[in-house]
Amino acid sequence: MIEASLRTPLCDLLECRYPVLQAGMGGVARSELVAAVAAAGGFGSLGMVREQPELIAQEIAAVRERTDCSFGVNLIPAATDRRLFDEELAVCTEEKVHAITFFWDVFPEAIAAARAQGCKVLYQVGSVSDALEAQAAGADAVIAQGVEAGGHVRGSVTSLVLLPLIARAVGIPVVASGGFASGASLVAALALGAAGIHCGTAFLATHESFAHEMHKSRILYASAEQTVHTDAFGINWPPNSPVRVLESSVTESLDGNLFGHRPDRTSRAIIASEDGRDIYLFSTDSPLRSMTGDLERLALFAGQVAGQIDCIQSAGHVIAGIVREAHAVISGIGEIDAPAKNDS
Ligand SMILES: Cc1cc2nc3c(=O)[nH]c(=O)nc-3n(C[C@H](O)[C@H](O)[C@H](O)COP(=O)(O)O)c2cc1C
Fold this sequence. Notes:
The chain is an alpha/beta fold. Helix content is 38%, strand content 16%. The chain contains 13 helices and 14 strands. It has helices at 2-5, 9-14, 31-39, 53-66, 82-94, 108-116, 128-136, 159-169, 183-191, 201-204, 213-221, 249-253, 315-343, and strands spanning 20-22, 45-47, 72-75, 99-103, 120-125, 141-145, 151-152, 174-177, 196-199, 227-230, 243-246, 270-274, 277-280, 291-293. Strands 1-9-8-6-5-4-3-2 form an eight-stranded parallel beta sheet. Strands 7-11-10 form a three-stranded antiparallel beta sheet, with no helix packed on it. It binds flavin mononucleotide.
C-alpha cells in the first residue's frame, strides 16, 4: 500500500521500481554505479559525455553483465563535436539502451533520432522555455534542474521555484534535479508536481562511483555554503557554461571574479593525467580513480546538498534510505493530518 504511493508514471516509463534517478555524471557514473543503482530499484545512467563509442559499448555491456534491469546513457550534444556525438548516439540506439538523458541546449534532432530508434528520451533543462522546447521536440520527460545542482548548471532558479513552474507548463513527467538526496526531498518533489528525483552528488559519494576518493571525502566535509557557482571551469564547453564546485584553492584564487571567464582563450597548464592524457587547469574534468596529479585543483563538482551528506555508502543503501525515509515522511504527514480531522 505504502510502496504503491511511491510508484509514479516515471517508474513505468523507465521500467524501474522507485522514482529515483542517478544522474549520468561524466567520468563518475560508470557501469559499476549504474548497475548498483538499477539492481536497487532506481534508474541509473552512464555518464558518457564526449566518450569514444568503443568505451560506451564496453560500458553498456558491463552493465548488462551485472544486471538485467533497464538503464540509460547521458550525452550532451552542445558540448560534443558533431561527428563524435552522432557516433555516440548511434552506439546507444544500436545497443537499444532503454533511455537517453540529454542536457544543456535542446537539440530537437537528437531527440527525434533517439526516439526513432525506440529509446525513451529525458532532457535536463533549467528553464520553462527549454522544457517546452524539449516537450515539443518529443521528449518523454524533462528533468528540471535547479541552480543548487552540482556539476554544470543550466538555469538560475532554485528547484523549489522551478519545479512547479515546469510541472504546470508541460504535459509530460517532470523529474526534480538539484538538491535532492533524501526521502523527505523525494516527497517534497512529488508534492511540487514531480514524478521523481534525479540525484548527482548523492551518488557521487558512493562506493561504486568512479570519482576519486579525495573528491568523495571532500563532499563529506563540505557544508552547504561551501560550493561555488562559476564559469571558470570551461575548457571543452561552450563559453558561459557555469558549474557548481566545492571551494578549493582554485576557486579562492578567482578572488570573487566568478563569471565572465574564457578558459578556451587562456594558455593551458597541465595539472593531472589519465592514461597518458593531459588534463588542464580549468578543464571540466573532475578527479577520477584513474587520474593522478594535482587533483585538488580539478573541478570538484558538487551541489549544495553536499551539506547533507556525511558518509560514503553503497548506492543500494542510498536508494533504500531514500525510500525508507519517504515512507516514514508520508506516514508522518498522515499522522499530522489526523488530529485536525478528529478536531472538526
Ligand atoms: C560530478 C558531477 C558530474 C556531472 N556530470 C554531468 C554530466 O556529464 N551530464 C549531465 O547531464 N549532468 C551532469 N551533472 C549534473 C547532474 O545531471 C545533476 O543536474 C545534478 O547532479 C543534480 O544536482 P545534485 O548534485 O544536487 O543532485 C553532474 C553533476 C555532478 C555532481
